[in-house]
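name: query_chain
kind: protein
chains: 1
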Amino acid sequence: MSIAPFLRSGPNGLYITDLPAFLASPCSAPISTDPNKSTWTDPSTRAQFSQMHIPAKELELLLYNKSRDTNRICPGCMLWYDLSRPGNPSAGISATLAQEMDLSGICSQSCMDELAGPEAGKALMGKDTGRMGDQEWEVLERESREAEKGGQNRFRVRRPVDGEPGDMVAESRSGFGVAR
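structure:
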């Protein structure tokens, strides 16, 4: 069986190799009819994130994962999966990882650790900002500063300032921003 040229087969399923081609294809899941999800595709939402200087690829991943009911693309490894299908990466996993998959599309603890750092990844996994305490914020902010000093290309996590969308901002050295 042949697969689309923007996909490659891997040990855990299909991985996206060309995001713009995938998004323009019929493989891309439809936008949710749930207003809480579909609002992520509003021009005003895109404009807010554009002001944060988020690179195009990261912005498209964020908007895709937030605006679909069950279809996700892991921003760490580019695994494409559907949470509602048997055999998806969420089968037999912890409730914490399942929550993270729904929140961000991150498919594993190793992808979270790669993006955020091991200690921060464990503090952040499966939590929106409403479930994070001061101690967790301190871990995230400390590890973010240490990674930045060491020149590592990980997320720098901080609490947002007034006027920014969302409750948390995670930035890579290239400027990626995420609001949870």
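note: The chain has eight helices and six strands.
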